[in-house]
Design a protein that fits this description.
Layout (H helix, E strand, L loop, with lengths): L1 H10 L3 H6 L5 H10 L3 E5 L1 H5 L19 H6 L4 E7 L7 H24 L4 E3 L5 H7 L3 E8 L9 H9 L1 E5 L25 H13 L2 E3 L5 H10 L5 E2 L16 H10 L2 E4 L3 H4 L7 H16 L5 H17 L7 H15 L4 E3 L19 H9 L4 H23 L4
Parallel strand pairs: 1-2, 2-4, 3-4, 4-5, 5-6, 7-8, 8-9
Helix pairs in contact: 3-16, 9-17, 10-11, 13-14, 15-16
The protein binds zinc ion (ZN).
The site of zinc ion has 5 residues, from loops.
Length: 407
């Protein structure tokens, strides 16, 4: 505990003066932080879990990994969504089958890790589980699916994955799939939003009580989902487009639509989604090169090649001096949503181990720095409680409630 406090003091940066002035002490920050149920709705840690040399039950450090059970506890993080992520490839039956197998491997790895370290964490399936596990002093590990590619065009697979523990599906990733258009497909829209199959997927997810995640999907897909879904939706890891002009972020009009729908936008801690990047920097160019490889070739690589690529990705920040994006920059997004539609519609989805990580919040153990920044800006404990989990769990419960009459 002492170590994390020391770290906290070093990393709080500008907050140090306030701490020294006695207004907001680390003790007060931790008291508030530990008194609220906290959830991070998106990390890509299952990718690391498939690596032999990664052990989620011991304390690791960035950049090798930003999430493990030890640091979750240190950072007062009660619940998390592990994403079973598959990159989009050409939609052939073979590639779909590979994506299906990969998603299952990640689900298996999550269950195995939670069994191995059962004293620290358990797989969670329902909205109430986080609170129950918090009382037992354990982390709640929920599983989401990032990219509906493993479903292919087989509607039965939605329920199959629900039964395996998947509680949200990010409908697509960086390219279009059979469900909908992506916000970042190089060839532009293919279905003009949700496909007919995608509409069936949305209805099936509503019926099953699965949360629909609109992160990564195109603006037209987003509005199609909002119109069709009977249940509120989430953006598991997206930020504010008015601050960082990226297609992955939500416009003001979209944020208003999320609020009207009763959903929530979970601010993503990825540099470019928090601050407009310097596109002339070497860091940016190198990162773009690697992103392209991740998006187009990752799933067809051998395990050794995958590991080499991930190592290369992790060394980028050190090798090419990453520009600083801070906790304050991140909380600017929370402020923005609060001012636009109110405090009930915003939360946090870090995208750790998938590109997320900022100065002052480089891994899960540093989450209290976000709480410190909110306290510094005058947020009340109730507001902090909403941001850290109450908003998200409200949506989750509503999704479950809407599903019940169908089951
Ligand atoms: Zn993502």
């Amino acid at each position: 505990m002492f170590k994390s406090f020391a770290l906290f003091f070093i990393l709080i940066g500008t907050g140090f003066n306030i701490l020294a002035a006695g207004k907001i002490t680390p003790r007060k920050v931790m008291k508030v932080h530990n008194s609220v149920l906290t959830v991070d709705t998106h990390v890509d840690t299952p990718m690391s879990m498939l690596e032999e040399d990664f052990d989620i039950g011991i304390k690791n450090s960035p950049p090798q990994s930003r999430v493990d059970f030890v640091r979750m506890k240190e950072g007062g993080l009660d619940a998390i969504f592990f994403a079973a992520f598959t990159g989009q490839r050409e939609r052939t039956p073979e590639n779909t089958q590979k994506a299906y197998e990969m998603a299952n491997r990640m689900i298996d790895a999550t269950f195995e890790a939670c069994e191995k370290y059962n004293e620290m964490a358990e797989v969670a399936l329902n909205s109430e589980d986080a609170k129950k596990l918090e009382k037992k002093g354990k982390r709640a590990i929920y599983i989401g699916m990032e990219n509906g590619f493993p479903i292919g065009n087989d509607i039965e697979k939605v329920e199959e994955f629900y039964l395996r523990g998947i509680r949200y599906i990010t409908l697509c990733h960086s390219s279009n799939n059979d469900i909908c258009d992506s916000s970042t497909d190089k060839n532009g829209p293919e279905h003009n939003g949700l496909s007919n199959f995608g509409k069936d997927v949305v209805k099936e997810m509503n019926n099953l009580g699965m949360i629909i995640d609109v992160s990564h999907i195109s603006d037209k897909s987003f509005y199609d989902v909002i119109e069709l879904s009977k249940a509120p939706i989430i953006a598991s890891h997206s930020s504010v487009r008015a601050i960082a002009n990226h297609k992955r972020n939500l416009s003001d009009d979209m944020i208003k639509a999320v609020a009207k729908n009763g959903g929530v936008i979970q601010i993503c801690l990825l540099d470019d989604y928090i601050k407009n990047p310097d596109t002339t920097s070497l860091y940016y160019k190198k990162r773009e090169e690697l992103s392209l490889i991740y998006d187009t070739k990752y799933d067809s690589m051998t395990d050794d090649e995958k590991k080499a690529l991930r190592d290369e990705w992790r060394s980028l920040r050190v090798k090419y001096s990453k520009p600083k994006v801070t906790v304050a920059d991140c909380v600017d997004h929370i402020d923005y949503v609060k001012n636009l539609v109110g405090i009930d519609y915003v939360g946090i989805g870090s995208d750790f181990d998938g590109g997320g990580g900022l100065d002052g919040v480089a891994d899960v153990s540093e989450f209290p720095n976000i709480t410190a920044e909110m306290l510094k800006r005058g947020y009340t404990r109730e507001e902090i409680r909403k941001v850290w989990g109450e908003n998200f769990f409200r949506v989750f419960k509503e999704v479950e409630k809407i599903a019940q009459p169908e089951s």
